[in-house]
Amino acid sequence: MGRSAAFFDLDKTVIAKSSALAFGRPFYRDGLISRQDVVKSAYAQLMFRLGGTDDQTMARTRDYLAALCKGWRVEQVRQIVAETLEELINPYVYAEAATLIGEHQAAGRDVVLVSASGEEMVRPIGALLGITDIIATRMGVVDGRYSGEIEFYAAGEHKADGVREMAENRGYDLAECYAYSDSSSDLPLLEVVGHPSAVNPSRTLRRVAVEHSWPVLEFRHPIPLGRRLRERPAVPVAAAALGVGVGVAIGLAIYGRHRRARAAAV
Predict the structure, then answer these.
(1) How far apart are CA 158 and CA 168, in angstroms?
(2) What is the separation of C-alpha 211 from the centre of its chain, rounded to a whole number of angstroms?
(3) How many angstroms separate the CA atoms of 184 and 206, rounded?
(4) In the predicted structure, residue 228 carries a pLDDT above the cut 70
(5) From CA 225, how far away is CA 86, in angstroms rounded?
């Protein structure tokens, strides 16, 4: 049990895409969601990434998630994630993030993934990275199916609550802990530790990071696990800046691809 830990947001911090949207295609293929659900989910994710961090917006996102998943079989979701993880997630892990995670582990710190995505998605992604500890959204389950209730929504202030609870249970000194995120919605997470860093930050988060003299890291090289084992990353963890708004640009590109793909399928 480490005296300190490093807490990593997942989307656009460790992986170069939205973990929830990444599984949209197999969920659609297996009949869990409709074409309309794919577009609505992409739009909701985009609005959230663009700064929809107020309580009302997060509550709407939480309620939409609960309604969307109601009735899904938990085992089916786990099976879909397990079958598609290699294709949909592995190629998009930032080499810089993988290196940084390894550095924290080598220093004796626990590494924790903290994500608003469901734990059925986040835990296998963590295993892919050699991470066993997660703080993620937990859905209510009745008779093996999602009940439409959310037991814990790991977003906004709730992420910080989860970190505080884990720190208390494990004896972490939060002043000695680290946190990494790209979104201003994670300001509560970043502010709860002694060593916060902004990764590929949104415009708002970049401004806050500059005001507080937090490190600003730019991760830009997603490399599959096999290549990471064969070669060291070609760039240092703190790569050259890509410019303000990089997170927004990536989000818009992902949303555009989903719209074009769904339009072509209609």
Answers:
(1) 15
(2) 24
(3) 9
(4) no
(5) 9
Q: How far is CA 181 from CA 124, 196, 202, 211, in A?
A: 20, 8, 10, 16
For residues 30 and 215, the model is more confident at: 215
Strands 145-152 vs 178-181: parallel, antiparallel or unpaired: unpaired
Residue 48 CA, distance from chain mean position: 12
- CA-nearest of 19, 14, 9, 139 to 80 is 19
What is the token pair recorded at 196?
A: 């916060």
pLDDT, position 3: 87
Q: What's the pLDDT at 255?
A: 37
What gap in Å lies between CA 55 and CA 158, rounded to an integer? 11
Element (H, E) at 116: strand 110-118
CA 194 to chain centre: 21
pLDDT at 55 (0 to 100): 65
Cα dihedral 70, 259, 9, 76 sign? positive
The total number of residues shown for the chain amounts to 266
What pLDDT does 235 receive?
37
Q: Mean per-residue pLDDT for 191-206?
A: 96
What does pLDDT average to over the chain?
A: 82
The pTM of this model reads 0.80
Q: In the structure encoding, which two tokens stand for residue 46, read together? A: 């985009």
pLDDT at 220 over 70: yes
Strands 178-181 and 5-9: parallel
Q: How many Cβ atoms sit within 10 Å of the Cβ of residue 190?
A: 26
Cα 246 to chain centroid, rounded: 17
Q: Which residues are catalytic?
A: 9, 11
